[in-house]
Amino acid sequence: MSFSKYLIQWYLQNRRNLPWRKTTDPYPIWLSEIMLQQTRVAQGLPYFQKFMQAFPTVHGLAAAPEEQVLKLWQGLGYYSRARNLHATAKYIAYELEGKFPPDYNGLLKLKGVGEYTAAAIASIAYGEPVPVVDGNVYRVLARYFGIETDISSSGAKKQFTELAASLLPKAQASAFNQAMMEFGALQCVPKNPDCTVCIFNAECAAFLTGRVNALPVKLKKTKVINRYFNYIIVKDVKGRSIINKRSGKGIWHNLYEFPLLEAEQGTDNEDVQAFINSLYGDYGITDVKLLNEVPVVHKLSHQHLHIRFWEVFTRSEVPGTLDPNVLKSYPFPVVIYNFIEKYWGST
To answer: Which domains does the chain have, with CATH numbers?
Structure first.
């Protein structure tokens, strides 16, 4: 029996019961694939269910305000996915009359849809025989065939895509692609897979040569930068606070946050208090308090944020402030949302 037949047979016996696998409608398939970019299924599933309940059709998603979309997405991270999702929904609803492009090449033109996502949607929704290639596929193929190509190198994607295409049975594109992804997620996991129960342990080159944890090869490492954020929580005489919308490009675009001082490492408390005084001194500052001596470290893919929160009380009203109950309805990065829940939940 061939690799493909074994794999599909394994998938049919072991696949998880996921809602987007019960349909060929491209809308929920597209929604799930966007959500699962750089996200585990266990984390993405509740968000998928919330979105399908709020927006059962692409027209409903297109008609929603961006802030509602971002609020529902809150906590899932990589928020550009949510903005691209919303923009694409509008394009499909208003420019394509609610119909998704019917093939891989058409799907590839949608905002936020790359080669992997287009291949997944095309094969699952339409049965188009185009292979998916992601981290799971790199890992399964590199281990089974003993491939030592650095997967971060320029020619790796072409090599693995051609290999996956050669294995893909044209009449079973949907099952094969989903099987590759599921096998990598459940069986051929990144660290310490249980190869003793693997269906391929009699043929897998990595297992037979003791290289399971050495494959796939990835030499290029992501450079991580550290940033130091000081968030100012104003509490004016009426107990109201200020939030701002992040309009600049970069992390958390169009999400909300408290007034921010981004400082250098080692900036002392006197510098932060001078900044606070320059903003709110005219409103009669009565107290300034650092709420966390040890910064909250929020890790993103390329950045580690070291976050401190400051509480500032004023004796008069500050323009532009919001009642905490109103403030909570806005979309925030999850690290700020978690702070809000704890902070106003205890006052």
So the answer is: 3-132+154-190 (1.10.340.30), 225-345 (3.90.79.10)
